[in-house]
Q: What sequence folds into this?
């Protein structure tokens, strides 16, 4: 074997590219450009509508955080080559379980939450198990669970409580430490201080006169940030992350190389169910009750956020940061249209157009990265 | 003994308000000792509902109780049912005239436009000049009628005072917040049921307008009752769904057993529920109220 | 070169796909330190045979003894853990992933930062570039996507990976078929090298010359059955070629396609 | 080149299979088994509920015919390797267009229908064009159109007529030949005769006393049968059918072999839109009005029917007859559960379970056909 | 054998993929009735080159003259219509479709029943079985799915198809790489036969012996550039082999890998 030079050889067949261009080319680029565009647009068209005062910011941040929570799960699962249409139904179902356990059965709220998480991830595992065992497309399997879980979310409260909305969780959760973990707010002191100093608006009338209009950072947002960070580190920095890419890129090849593909996929289904349950728990704790119709269409919204964020629907390519930006864009647009006073039934039309535009942009970027195909 | 009645609604199966209806027919069925069934199109598609009425007729019940939320779509199947010997009572939506038209025995319900109109008149008397209608079910005609009626009652143009809020509580809440943020001079809020009222309550609490802004709602629910009690909600329009479900079963049973029939339609609403006299409402909210 | 104890003993392996009988009872022994060539016509069942060896397929009938112990692989992972590395005919690469991620797929190097175990990208990149250069391929960079490599380049990545992670048995399913002259020479030299280290190599090829260059023993499959195993030196190139063609006469060219194809 | 024997050589490597087994192995087998099972079950559990009297049969036949109409389009499109999530929205949108054209604008109904068909197929073509041009997955592109079309189906009537339901089409359609083609009934004489002879039930009172309860065969069912036959012939017996399989099996390979893949895919998107419009037109003509919420979730129902019928979600494999059987099963189950008196909120649970069961059965059958994988 | 007028003249073809320059100006002439071998290392750009010829890629720069006329293929369909049949390295087969449907894909035989034009399945099945048998493959039946064939069997279907439908130019991208001895001999004989019928054949291979057996002219690509074209007889096997390896020295085996690889 000829002696190999110890330095990497230059290849004359590569055009040189500027450092800047090199740095720009990453899966999140579409998300970054989108975010900038969207903010610029709304600053122009809705800058004076209150969208960017403290209350307005909190407003779209919460919506975006909701999307982020489910988008992280959907993103990792999609990169692993599958997707989950039962996310929305899972949100309804998990919320209902918490309400039934804590209100109807009177369990302490922390127990209700823990048991619900256990059940939800078990269902996620079942989803994954069926997919890897039968080799069926996840579209079909999770579509079945979309119906099954929604069916139970309606059937259970109706048979048990004879209603489809179960309230009273707020009372049950009073003083429960785990409930606070999902429904509470942090940094209230900071916000009070900001309000006292006049940096953020305070109430001018009503019962809470003098208090800052934004009380604190809701745990919903904390969860969203946490999940994004964890998801990002797992995906890009660990061995398991490499397996996720491999499982989604070509399951057969990955399996032949010794990647435990089935385990990876099942775990990702469980993680998606986990994220949906976080969403459901935050919602139940914030609104104090669960309804059978919670989470309708959320599976699509999660997938949309992920795809806007640059992931490939067919698996093997994507980024959690991108998905988070996708969720941010989605949330800002949705609320921004309201602030801008656009006829609200046109919202869907805009949503569709933005989705189309975003994916076309992303595809273009991906082609630039991997070379024309 | 053992007559069979089928109630067909137009609501998608997650709609919480219809739960009271289910409980109402169940109770009536028990008390009158008849067999009752509840059916609805899972997605709320009225064309699917027409098929369900046809099917209900095919299964040979003694009577059908149904809503008439779109005359064009539903009149055909209802007429066919009547003609094939099934007695029909119209409940909830539609108008008494339409009920007569399709050959129904009677009408039990609350004409939506009129209810909205009455609410609008009341609000006008209380000095309201502009409002926000939080419509969580925009594709259903009756919900739009409520908003339209309210606007007409106030004597203002509906314009873009009605928002399509979606059904996710967080989205409803934040859209209400966004609207009030951009239109701070809004006088009143009208919600169309617990789905939109509950998050709206939280929204008002969060932006400090609770108790300050004029707040009316259709239909009752647990949280709405609490809001009424706390003085955040000024009034709720109660169309008493329980009666809409319970009475037709009783009427039909008695008609079939003894041939007796009330001579007129029954308006189950609108009744305005305010802070006063809430105990019973509170006890049974979401179940029978 | 052959010791008394075979490393893998495959006995009477049968494999049926639905109504198709791909293998109808094949027995082969593989000894440590030998290069065992598996030859045969298209569709003879070579790939199917080595897939039962590497845990991809479960044989319908027959036994696999590994170092004298009966083995049941549930999964290729088991086979890899037992020391059987395979380069499949249809590659085991993920097109969208970078070369270095592919190279270490399933064997990711770990760098510990406190309690965290992170994928050591620097190490992976460095090793990948080195190993590929040893095989005669100059990569543009370790993060180039495998999907942008030519067929032969991909093949080389797969072989380099299997060799790098060491194994008791190295199975190569037509590794040289898509390779250029230089890469082919490298692969054959690599086979020669690992064999000398005591690794058993199972080498599938349609090229008689490649087989003769490195093979110690030659087993010819024909329509799911074995035509027997020959030692090196016992058989000439022409005989081997006739066997590989399944005993049927070859089309001849008017010009000269003298000797072996 | 050696002389080839003129007869096909036997291959000793094939196990012999019985003629019966050979004949049974076809993509529709799952559908056939399913149909038999479903009918057997409901004959037992709902035999005396009116499900199998003339009215009952007409009831589930119409539901099944509806599913069939959209399933044929979805099936061919799925075999061509794409799918369309905008079918449901297209139904709502197309219906709304017909109503607006004929009632609000007062056009003759035949013109309204023709223009609507033109617009709908153009949108289908646009869908297809975007998919083939950008190479984006059809899931995403048609998801965008799901929102866009539904948005317009709500926005248009609200701005034009200030309601979400437009009625009065029945009056406008009086005497229109094309309206009869979609909303009429045929064979009324036969049914009258059946009624007169007491073989089917007749009305007992009212203006139509003495007429049979089932008046005739609705054009809806005629359209369903027609589309199934046309779809089946195209797929299995023509050159274009081969192209559909090829485009879905491997678009790149098909393109390299000279199959005009883009044309095939765009045509299939147009055909799917056409089928959705047939559905919408029949509905509008039968019920005399259009509503913004028509067709919700119908895209899933179409896909479910197709998949129950044995097609592969990933394209390249399937059968129109199978899809038709899938639609039949779906319709019979949906209505049968009501007849059998199953709690209506459990309907979704059953739907999910049946879907799961059906696809698992189909996969098993396909594996038997193509050999173990 | 070469006439004055080339059938295809490729002039200064360049092809860039993003920042990768796959072809940096390649000029090749192909004459009717000749077998033109395209040789070169892995990643040299052979597949990319023939893809610009068959309409899959549009060249970034350069001209294609077909029978003296400048040509712009929008699509492989145009190239096929113009008489250029290609068997790609990564196959052009649909795994889920039957062999006979694959064979006639894009060229379906038509049977007319009144105004209806139907796919003539009987004819297609018969021809497919015959053609495959001519290539030395006995199919189980024409409706066997291509996905169940072995790699070499699939390759053979693709070649048989391209030959059957006739063409002015037949492009074969490493057709023999996955083939068994017998199938290889058949393919080489087929090339010889169609060449004699006046068809121009472009033949890519890594096997020097295969190239020398049927080639009339040899063009060697190296890193996206051509090292020139040699006539048959002008060049020896050893010289060709050195050129194909890009001029770099080959790894040598301790044993004997005498002569050409
Ligand atoms: N999954 C499968 N289903 C059905 N038949 C199969 C399957 N895999 C392989 N076969 C059949 O088994 C036989 C042996 O295939 P195999 O791939 O082992 O051949 P091979 O010797 O590797 O051929 P080649 O040299 O062309 O690669 C072939 O005839 C093939 O059709
Ligand atoms: N779609 C693409 N995107 C980016 N780079 C590509 C693409 N296709 C080919 N290349 C690059 O162009 C170069 C030439 O590739 P090509 O496939 O033409 O090589 P080849 O000569 O056919 O090699 P082999 O003998 O291995 O088949 C390779 O280095 C490859 O990495
Ligand atoms: Mg093989
Ligand atoms: Mg190549």
A:
């Amino acid at each position: 074997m000829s002696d190999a030079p110890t330095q990497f050889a230059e290849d004359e067949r590569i055009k040189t590219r500027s450092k800047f261009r090199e740095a720009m080319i990453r899966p999140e680029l579409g998300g970054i450009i989108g975010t900038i565009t969207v903010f610029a647009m709304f600053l122009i068209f809705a800058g004076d509508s209150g969208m960017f005062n403290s209350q307005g910011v909190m407003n779209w941040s919460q919506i975006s955080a909701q999307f982020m929570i489910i988008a992280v799960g959907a993103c990792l699962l999609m990169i692993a080559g599958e997707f989950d249409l039962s996310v929305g139904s899972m949100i309804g179902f998990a919320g209902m379980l918490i309400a039934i356990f804590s209100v109807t059965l009177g369990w302490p709220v922390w127990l209700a939450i823990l048991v619900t998480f256990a059940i939800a991830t078990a269902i996620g595992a079942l989803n994954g198990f069926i997919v890897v065992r039968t080799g069926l497309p996840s579209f079909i399997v999770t579509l079945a669970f979309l119906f099954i879980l929604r069916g139970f979310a309606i059937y259970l409260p109706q048979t048990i409580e004879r209603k489809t909305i179960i309230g009273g969780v707020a009372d049950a959760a009073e003083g429960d430490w785990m409930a606070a973990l999902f429904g509470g707010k942090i940094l209230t002191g900071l916000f009070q201080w900001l309000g006292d100093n006049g940096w953020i608006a305070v109430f001018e009338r009503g019962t809470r006169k003098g208090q800052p209009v934004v009380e604190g950072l809701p745990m919903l947002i904390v969860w969203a940030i946490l999940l994004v960070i964890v998801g990002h580190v797992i995906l890009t920095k660990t061995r398991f992350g490499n397996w996720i890419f491999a499982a989604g890129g070509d399951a057969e090849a990955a399996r032949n190389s010794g990647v435990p593909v089935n385990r990876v996929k099942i775990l990702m289904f469980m993680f998606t169910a986990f994220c949906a349950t976080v969403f459901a728990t935050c919602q139940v704790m914030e609104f104090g009750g669960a309804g059978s119709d919670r989470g309708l269409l959320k599976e699509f919204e999660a997938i949309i956020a992920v795809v806007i964020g640059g992931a490939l629907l067919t698996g093997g390519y994507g980024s959690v940061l991108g998905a988070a930006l996708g969720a941010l864009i989605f949330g800002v647009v949705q609320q921004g249209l309201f602030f801008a006073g656009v006829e609200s039934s046109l919202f869907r039309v805009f949503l569709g157009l933005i989705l189309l535009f975003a994916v076309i942009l992303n595809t273009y970027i991906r082609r630039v990265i991997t070379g024309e195909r | 003994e053992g007559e069979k009645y089928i109630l067909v609604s137009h609501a998608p199966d997650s709609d919480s308000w219809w739960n009271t209806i289910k409980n109402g027919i169940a109770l009536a069925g028990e008390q009158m000792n008849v067999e009752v069934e509840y059916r609805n199109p899972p997605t709320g598609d009225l064309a699917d509902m027409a098929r369900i009425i046809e099917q209900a007729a095919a299964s040979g019940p003694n009577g059908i109780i149904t809503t008439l939320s779109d005359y064009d779509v539903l009149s055909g199947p209802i007429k066919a049912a009547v003609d094939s010997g099934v007695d029909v009572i119209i409940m909830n939506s539609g108008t008494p005239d339409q009920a007569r038209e399709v050959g129904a025995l009677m009408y039990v319900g609350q004409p939506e436009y009129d209810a909205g109109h009455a609410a609008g008149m009341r609000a006008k008397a209380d000095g309201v000049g502009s409002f926000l209608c939080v419509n969580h079910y925009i594709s259903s005609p009756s919900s739009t009628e409520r908003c339209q009626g309210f606007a007409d009652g106030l004597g203002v143009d509906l314009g873009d005072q009605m928002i399509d809020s979606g059904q996710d509580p967080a989205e409803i809440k934040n859209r209400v917040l966004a609207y009030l943020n951009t239109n701070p001079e809004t006088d009143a809020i009208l919600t169309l049921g617990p789905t939109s009222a509950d998050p709206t309550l939280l929204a008002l609490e969060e932006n400090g307008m609770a108790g300050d802004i004029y707040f009316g709602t259709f239909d009752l629910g647990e949280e709405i009752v609490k809001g009424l009690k706390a003085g955040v909600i000024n009034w709720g329009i109660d169309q008493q769904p329980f009666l809409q479900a319970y009475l037709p079963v009783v009427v039909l049973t008695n008609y079939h057993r003894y041939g007796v029939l009330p001579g007129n339609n029954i308006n189950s609403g609108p009744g305005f529920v305010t802070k006063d006299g809430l105990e019973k409402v509170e006890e049974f909210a979401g179940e029978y109220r | 070169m052959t010791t008394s104890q075979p490393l893998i003993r495959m006995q009477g392996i049968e494999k049926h796909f639905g109504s198709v009988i791909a293998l109808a009872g094949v027995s082969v022994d593989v000894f440590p330190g030998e290069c065992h060539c598996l030859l045969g016509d298209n569709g003879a069942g070579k790939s199917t045979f080595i897939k039962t060896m590497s845990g991809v397929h479960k044989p319908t009938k027959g036994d696999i003894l590994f170092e004298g112990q009966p083995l049941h692989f549930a999964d290729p992972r088991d086979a890899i853990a037992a020391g059987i590395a395979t380069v499949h005919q249809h590659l085991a690469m993920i097109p969208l992933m970078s070369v270095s991620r592919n190279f270490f797929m399933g064997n990711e190097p770990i760098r510990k930062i406190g309690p965290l175990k992170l994928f050591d990208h620097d190490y992976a990149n460095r090793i990948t570039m080195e190993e590929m250069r040893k095989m005669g391929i100059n990569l543009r960079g370790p993060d180039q996507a495998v999907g942008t490599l030519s067929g032969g380049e991909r093949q080389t990545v797969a072989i380099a990976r299997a060799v790098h992670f060491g194994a008791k048995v190295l199975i190569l399913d037509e590794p040289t078929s898509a390779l250029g002259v230089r890469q082919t020479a490298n692969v054959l030299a690599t086979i020669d090298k690992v064999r000398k280290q005591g690794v058993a190599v199972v080498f599938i090829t349609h090229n008689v010359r490649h087989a003769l260059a490195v093979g110690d023993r030659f087993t010819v499959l024909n329509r799911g059955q074995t035509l027997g195993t020959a030692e090196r030196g016992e058989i000439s190139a022409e005989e081997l070629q006739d066997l590989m063609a399944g005993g049927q006469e070859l089309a001849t060219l008017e010009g000269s396609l003298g000797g072996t194809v």
About this structure: Chain E touches chain D through 39 residues (CB under 8 Å).
